[in-house]
Amino acid sequence: MIRRATLADQPRIHAIRMGVRENILSNPALVTAEEVDWYRDHAIFLVCESAGDVAGFACANHQTGLVWALFVDPEQEGQGHGRALLDAALAELKAAGHAQAWLTTGAGTRAERFYRRHGWREMGRSRDGQIVFICAL
Fold first, then answer.
1. CATH class for domain 2-98?
2. 68-88 burial by CB neighbour count: b if 16+ within 10 A, else e?
3. I need a labelling partner for 48 at 20 to 30 A (CA). Which of 17, 72, 79, 137 fits?
4. What pTM, to 2 d.p., does this model score?
5. What are 113-134's pLDDT values in tens digits?
6. Per-domain residue ranges for the chain?
7. Secondary structure (H, E, C), 89-135
């Protein structure tokens, strides 16, 4: 089940983000509480529930078309949660008037393979070496 994230989901969302095996935050302080609150209160912040627990989450900026975050509990990967969250976030970006979405991710990662497999197109590299992907909506 996909639904909007709530403040009560934050501990589980934090646990998922800190528990990933790839795209590990080198400095967790770079993601501020204010930024997370803004996504939850003003943008697109979705969670996927499985057996009554949050299995993953996605955040997208309805103003810019950026998919800011997509993470699934490593113990629940491969069950379709990431795809369901991504599809729901992209549908909301399209409804907000965007013709395309964009994101960045690390090179040589499972995330890179996931986005390529789902039709995202590489547009180059960001200044920090991340792959910049776009996807038509």
1. alpha beta
2. bbbbbbeebbeeebbebbbeb
3. 137
4. 0.92
5. 999 999 999 999 999 899 999 9
6. 2-98
7. HHHHHHHCCCCEEEEEECCCCHHHHHHHHCCCEEEEECCCCCEEEEE
